[in-house]
Model the fold of this input.
Amino acid sequence: MFLDGWKQNLLKTKVKKLQKSKDVNSVNSLGEGVGLLVNIHEFQDLEKLRELMKRVSESVCNTLIFYSEEKAQIDAGNAIVLSKKDFTFSGSLKNSKIQEFVSKPFTVLIGYYHTENVFLDFVSAQSKALFKVGISSLSEFNDLTIKSKLEDVKQFENELLKYLKLLNRID
Done:
């Protein structure tokens, strides 16, 4: 659809502007929990990702958002479903749960998706998370990129924990 393409192009433009005006976060800033973004079309094992979040932080603030073309496709459990319908035609968020997610100062935000997804990129770029990690080298707003296969959550987890400890982001 024409309007969907227009919405995506507008979001891409906003993401690029956010990349240019990125603030550098201080190590001493206080944050809590882990935010995790995933494209459900690339990786469906949400339970492995929930375990990953628990390993990084035992906080009750841990939040999982997954992108799906249609909200009704998948049972989300306690995860938040993100779709293109959560954005206005002017490129703003209209879902209050996602706006709340973006405004939380997570200790770590993990972007667990390989292919470019302007909707997940927008949420990640808008996020007030103190440290952003991803597996996609396409995202320029990540503070750390760990190259791994989507299916190999354990390898990603081991590398993530190692670097977060080295950088004094977790105990």
